[in-house]
Amino acid sequence: MLPIATTVALRHPPLVTWAIIGINIFVFFFIQAPIAQQGGEAALRAFLAEWGLVPARYFVPGWAQAHGLDGNILPFLTNTFLHGGFLHLAFNMWTLYIFGPAVEDRLGPLGFVLFYLACGLGASFAHAVMNADSMLPAIGASGAIAGISGAYIRLFPHSRIIIMIPILFFPFFFELHALVFAAIWLIGQLTSGITALFMPPNVGGVAWWAHIGGFVIGWLAATPWLRKPRHRVLHADEGKYGCCPDGRRKHTGFG
What we know:
The chain is 55% helix and 8% strand. The chain is mainly α. It has a single domain, classed as Rhomboid-like (Rhomboid-like fold), CATH 1.20.1540.
């Protein structure tokens, strides 16, 4: 179930969203990938242990010292700019490209930057707490992007999300109410996250609790922006795909 577009109109180009996508691409292709190519798997592992989020580094006494690491807390943020492969990077950046612009438009450039970083930190903390004895580095922007998705659902709960599902070799397109999309996604994350709690701590996989934590933080932190914005109110004819500017089908007021 791949989101293709939203129905929320924008006032300004999402420059910060594009910049964050650019930074993630730069880190992957010009920092992370060259380390793997030049130094091999051992060098990449050492790099990810240093800058990825290893919960045991903070919660297992003596583990960090035994592996030549200190208590540096920067990985709670730096891990959100690292990715495990091209597809991991591509899917995360696509999701940010879909949901980021509408949230940035409502929060403003500076607010969006701070909001994104806060969601990333919160997601990292949620993962570390729920996997305190894990010795594997967690990487990826998905927790921060889950926070942006949570903010989108909070700010535009009645909007529509255009979805694509590939059936054999043919794409099938349809639209979902934003709250329905969020419910399906969140149920899947919770089910997988609870299941992961019963798995061995050092089995690799998806950081489900980072997704859940980021989404919840984004949902809650978006509350101050629910009030009517001070900037220009969108007009009725600025909607997309036959929707109101805020993504609703029925013209019952917006701005």
